[in-house]
Design a protein that fits this description.
The longest helix has about 35 residues, at about 335-375. Helix 2 packs antiparallel against helix 11 (about 335-375), helix 4 runs parallel beside helix 11 and helix 11 crosses helix 13 (about 440-460). The protein folds into 2 domains: about 85-345, Type I PLP-dependent aspartate aminotransferase-like (Major domain) (Aspartate Aminotransferase, domain 2), CATH 3.40.640; about 355-480, Aspartate Aminotransferase, domain 1 (Alpha-Beta Complex). It is about 35% helix and about 10% strand. The protein contains 15 helices and 12 strands. It is of the alpha/beta class and about 500 residues long. The strands form 3 sheets. The chain has a 7-stranded mixed beta sheet, with helices on both faces. A 3-stranded antiparallel beta sheet has the order 10-12-11, with helices on one face.
Length: about 500
């Protein structure tokens, strides 16, 4: 990092008269005279003026402050930040894809529609569902879409009394939020000490007013819900549907399918399980799958074969149509196509055998890290985990070193912090998910760093409490940034 540029925005580097570009003459003369005065600026915009080397160095220096899966280990629990193979990027960047327009005639975009259809078929096989829509743009958008499917299903039967969605207390925050946005009432069900759903508590909540129960399996603390057959039977017996939050699908690939467990509706985070990098709020994709009998409620538009060959991955001429029984449109067109292409490339590259290795390797990695650190970090649930696990901060609480301090200190070791203070079941939650793409050497380096931080907490706690010590930005005031953000350089 060149310290000359660090901490300076592009306006700080501006010098009047400098240019990093030249534009050709437009050949249209003075077009400003034809623009109504009401649409014209009274003065020139405040744009920075820099030469090309300054511009290039500025943005490259900014980029070195970003952390991602291409920079280092990213053990962000519940987010499955796995490495994104570069063949995915190469494929979705092909000009044949990049030049497409959603309003082209259907006969000119058969390749894109075949890719869409092939991915939904692959997801059906992976999830045990009858049909998928790829239209939702993100996981939470998928949740909302899935709940809208459920609501449309109940309304189609004239069952307007079903207005409640039961959500575990360990659920992702998007679950209750999505239910509320869908116009449904959220009811919380408690978890047992091992993090699994309290089935007896759930039984007492199920009645004719419940539309759905939302579950993540494995759950948010990385434990498989072994009572799922009983739960599915209970939910269906009361007339409700069972929704699968696909955030934790990674350890299930090739091992178990939500549809086979009894789930009726599910969403998949393509950007998690199928490798698209998704830091900073995007990009994402949240396809929604449904069991047989619910397909008609999926959103419009939908890709449908003209000459049907249900068994072939790329085996039909396709059209785009609308269904009258659909819940309606939930996105501008057919979803985030570039993310869909990356996911399809990932699935086809790994193939059946490769996909079936992801889950056991992710589980092995998580348990290896957990067992290597359990003597220094508090392990509230002492069981074999799946893809992730949760510590409740340091085992030694006497030093006053918190989970936040540990997370900050990890930055000095070149690692992104795990998820902290979630789930809310534990006061000092530290959720770690290694993913299957990390090597033994990387895991050992992370374990060594975590152990070193634990020892520092006992021997020199102030050092950990003041971390990070070596990053360009140390400890910003996050609260002030949220309450009084400065979104422009100049006071306007």
């Amino acid at each position: 990092m060149n310290k000359k540029f660090y901490g300076k925005v592009i306006y700080d580097l501006s010098k009047e008269g400098r240019r990093a570009y030249s534009l050709p003459q437009n050949g249209l003369g003075d077009g400003l005279k034809d623009i109504p005065a009401v649409f014209l600026r009274s003065k020139a915009p405040l744009l920075p003026e820099v030469d090309e080397p300054t511009l290039v160095r500025h943005y490259n220096n900014l980029s070195t402050n970003n952390f991602g899966v291409d920079t280092g280990f990213y053990p962000l629990g519940s987010c499955t930040m796995k490495y994104n193979p570069k063949i995915n990027e190469e494929l979705c960047a092909l000009p044949q894809w990049q030049g497409l327009h959603p309003l082209q005639p259907v006969e000119t975009v058969q390749g894109a529609l075949l890719a869409y259809d092939a991915l939904q078929k692959a997801l059906c096989e992976i999830g045990g569902m009858a049909r998928f829509t790829l239209n939702p743009y993100a996981g939470a958008h998928g949740e909302l879409t899935g709940l809208m499917v459920i609501r449309a299903y109940h309304e189609s039967r004239g069952d307007a009394a079903r207005v409640k969605v039961i959500v575990p207390d360990s659920a992702h925050g998007t679950n209750p939020a999505s239910a509320a946005v869908a116009g449904l009432k959220v009811v919380e069900v408690k978890s047992l000490p091992d993090g699994t759903i309290d089935t007896e508590a759930l039984r007492g909540l199920l009645d004719e007013t419940v539309a759905a129960v939302m579950m993540t399996n494995p759950n948010t603390v990385g434990i498989f819900e072994s009572a799922i057959p009983e739960i599915a039977e209970m939910v269906h017996a009361c007339g409700a549907l069972l929704y699968y939050d696909g955030a934790n699908l990674n350890p299930m690939l090739g091992i178990a399918r939500p549809g086979d467990m009894g789930f009726d509706v599910m969403h998949i985070n393509l950007h998690k399980t199928f490798s698209t990098p998704h830091g900073g709020g995007g990009p994402g994709s949240g396809p929604v799958g449904v069991r047989k009998g619910l397909e008609e409620f999926l959103p419009n538009p939908r890709v449908v074969p003209i000459d049907r060959d249900a068994d072939a991955l790329f085996g039909a001429t396709l059209k785009v149509e609308k269904s009258g029984k659909s819940l309606g449109r939930i996105s501008a067109w057919l979803g985030n196509f570039a993310v869909e292409l990356r996911a399809l490339a990932y699935i086809l590259t790994l193939g059946r055998d490769g996909l079936m290795l992801a889950a056991p390797l992710a589980t092995l990695n998580a348990n290896y890290v957990k067992e290597s650190l359990r003597d220094l970090y508090k392990l509230p649930i002492d069981r074999v985990c799946k893809h992730e696990f949760v510590f409740d901060g340091l085992a030694d609480k006497s030093t006053g070193v918190t989970t936040l301090n540990v997370a900050k200190r990890l930055l000095d070791h070149g690692f992104h912090a795990p998820t902290i203070y979630f789930p809310l079941l534990f006061h000092e939650s530290l959720m770690i998910e290694p993913t299957e793409t990390e090597s033994l050497e990387t895991l050992d380096e992370f374990i060594e760093a975590m152990r070193e931080i634990a020892h520092e907490a006992s021997e020199d706690p102030d050092k950990v409490k003041n971390a990070p010590l070596e990053t360009p930005v140390r400890r910003p005031d996050d609260t002030a940034a949220a309450l009084t953000p400065k979104v422009t350089y100049f006071e306007l």
